[in-house]
Amino acid sequence: MTAPASPMTSDAASPAAARPMRARMGLTQFGLSYLLLVLLTLIGCVNYDLSLGYGLTFVLAGVWVVASGQAARAARRVTVRVGAPTAAVAGGEAVYTVHFGAPGRDVPVAVVVRTSQGDTRYVNARVRAGEPCAVAVAVPARVRGDLTLTSVRVSALDDLAIWQATLRPAPDAAWNVTVHPAPEVGAPPLPPHAPGGVGDGTRRTRGDEDFAGLRPYHPGDSPRQVSWRHVARTGTLLTRETDAPLGRAVHLEWHATEGAGTVEARLSRLAAWIAALRAAGQPFALSLPGHTLPAASGDAHAARALDALARVTPRPAAPTAKVGRTSDPTGLSASAMRSTLIALAFTLAPAVLREPVWITALIAGLLLHTAWRVRRARAPIPTWALGVVAGVSAALLAGTYGTLLGRDAGTALLALLAALKTAESRTRRDANLLILLALFVASTHYFFGQGPLTALHSVLSAWALLAAAARWTVTAPPEPPLEETASAAQAGTLLALAIPLAITLFVLFPRPSGPLWHLAVQGGASTGLANEITAGEYSALAQNRDVAFRADFQGPVPPVSARYWRGPVYESYDGQRWGQIRQGSASASVDFGGPTWTYTLTLEPTSSPWLPVLDAPSALPAGTFMTTNFQAFMVRPPSTRQRVTVQSRGARLGLREYDERLRYDTALPQGESPRAVALAATWRSLAPEDRVRAALTYFQRGGFAYTLTPPTLPRHDRVDAFLWDSKQGFCEHYASAFTFLMRAAGLPARIVGGYLGGELNPDGGYLIVRQQDAHAWSEVWLAGQGWVRVDPTALIAPARVNAGVQTALSAPQATAAPAPGPMQRLQLRLDAVQNRWDDVIIGYGGEQQQSLLSRVGLGDVGGARYAVVLTLLLALALLPAALWRRRLAVPNDPAARALHDLTVRLRLPREPGETPSAYAERARAQWPALGPALDAVVRAYHAARYAPGDHAGAEREVRAAVQRIRRPSRQD
């Protein structure tokens, strides 16, 4: 497709034809789709508060911005000249040549031409650094007559073909081509010669038999007729004239073609005869309606005759034209597709850990099939078959997850659709769409985690996918796709230059306070705080070491005995299950008076709406409310890791409680556990505090044991079975039995679920609360005291409060947890890194942003100072990209770099293929006073490039000669 331009072709360029043109910036189809992808991911980040998603979105946006500057710089360094063919044949092609100058770096270009016969043709190519080249653009010559280019658009692209800086050369009369009639295939023999007569020996015409003299050279003369001996002696082009007897010339008459039929058929026959006569070197004359050509011979005469045929009226109408790509391959590049598939597989890899096995196997099979069929140039899978696979897979996913709108099912279906897209891809446009789809898939991984490893994977995925996109920029043969190392370097450079802009936007881009819409993110509850509890539920959670949340305190960490993280409150009881109730009354009273704790919770994803808090919260985060039984309720449970700040104070809850609630919290199922009811009835005569102490004494002296694997209790009379038979249980056994006894004794009581304790990380000074720390305790309402927390489990296993679940199982009476081992200390250090990441990156939201702006004195988001600083920082963020583009625009060769500096000094760009000597002459014509200085530059340049020996001194002389040239002023 591309070839170096010959010196003769390049020197033929006129200054008007090669003058710099103003570029018009615009997006390619891929660039527009890329922008829509960035906007879509940004909306998703806003709606789901994906902090790391903001980071990836801003990196991609930075690439989009940096690429625009790359395309603009490339357009300023490219010069263009369009050359037309001398002739074309109807039904064939006219091959135009677009000549490019030698830019300082490789520049992908796209050439789009439109013809006067209604055709549009597209060619993409790569202009190599320092090499003038020519791109051939073949356009259909549909009918005879005049053919010209009505529009030429040359677009300089960035490395990813996101932006195009379009140059439009002005229409030139040199673009006109005469389309000759197509010669008839199997034309009849030539007509006979004109008969000879008297005087034939003296009547002569132009021919090729006898030498007749010399004349000046005219364009179109055959090189065989040039007298090279005179050229060598005089330096002037002369053409030999020959003649022949007039009787030997063939007369091509219009009426001789009547048997051919239509006008076009008659012209085709004449064209065939002219071709035969030109090949034989025989003179001929041509007679057409309204035009006669005297007898002569040679290529120029044949061309004039064909031109005359092309202009015979009436001229035919051109058939319907079509848009086409002159050099675009019909199939996919196997090399570029391989890179795309590898990048896609890497992007989809994390989903293997969470999606069904059959989805993973199906995706892997589709990717492998695509790699095989592209390499073997086989046809893609029919669209109808892929539709069947997609429909069946969607039905299976809906059956597995119960819906297709949730997080798990939606992301699995998206990954499958990306794999199906590879199976039906046929063109470069399909490959570009596949890359965009994969970039969107990379952003969906943040629904499942926003840790450092997820961030690293997403950046590497973006790098691999953008490198694959760089390989699709130019894929038309004979030019192969860009090498993998070169495309990776280009994509890596764009990402590196985009990072300053991404950081600036990450810090200062306004963070909305709420979602645009709410779509539940499906997934199992990870906190274990359910709407109801039964015996055995919390004991199952006690074997799960997954993190539920982390608590980072501003100030000292509360003592172990105060680390009760309050969650849901269970007040209804049917003999088997404790559940929650909804009360329409106003909230009970809260009398604050204890210590204050301010802490930040880093919550893991959950579907549970309960926010675990200490005691009574005095300040809750936005979107969280307090219920009438003092439960912190989140309107929107976190679908990803989320940080919230809470302030709690010691308080007396429900000191003034409503009678309706108190009556409800003394109710028991009729006939349930009569022995326990009878036992509690013996305490009714005691004071309320004494009833509580009596029940606790019973547990303390009753031989009860703490275990994770208690025996199964019967369906009815469970409390009796536990108190007098099994006497083994976990926290919900003791809380349930104690609450039952208090109600039977006439005291309002209920169960509170939540977490107890937390592991202190010495590296970060924060608590790690795990799923195994889930706990249940009781609350008893006492007049003058309100709801009082009572934890009967602490009597049976004090270590559960002081040291955690694992210590309580092995040493129930322990007062502290054992010192962590080497492996546990390493885990704590890694967790400290994770917590710091959550604090700085994941927890950066609207409140943190406003706090930062206030600390640095920028005021509110959107204010005048904010706008000014944001503009300045964005300009500084783009400075590295501008400096990098400026560096790339300068040639690496010292002599060529000095010549480049000269063009910058003079503000006069070089034309395509223009030699230093020709450039100096053109500059001398504009500024005659610079003639001697320009001659010195040219001599030094030639010495640096072509003289034998060490060129270092000559290169220094070139630089010195350029520096001695004064930049001309406007008056000069």
From TrEMBL:
Alphabetic keyword roster: Hydrolase, Membrane, Protease, Transmembrane, Transmembrane helix
Regions crossing the membrane: 27-44, 50-67, 381-398, 432-449, 455-474, 486-509, 864-884
Stretches the record annotates as Disordered: 183-226
Gene3D superfamilies: 3.10.620.30
Any one Gene Ontology BP term: proteolysis
Coiled coil regions, renumbered to chain: none
Domain Transglutaminase-like: 723-794
Highest taxon of the lineage: Bacteria
Gene Ontology terms, MF aspect: peptidase activity
A Pfam family: Transglut_core
Keyword Oxidoreductase included in the entry's annotation: no
PANTHER family the record matches: PROTEIN-GLUTAMINE GAMMA-GLUTAMYLTRANSFERASE
Full protein name: Transglutaminase-like putative cysteine protease/uncharacterized protein (DUF58 family)
Species name: Deinococcus metalli
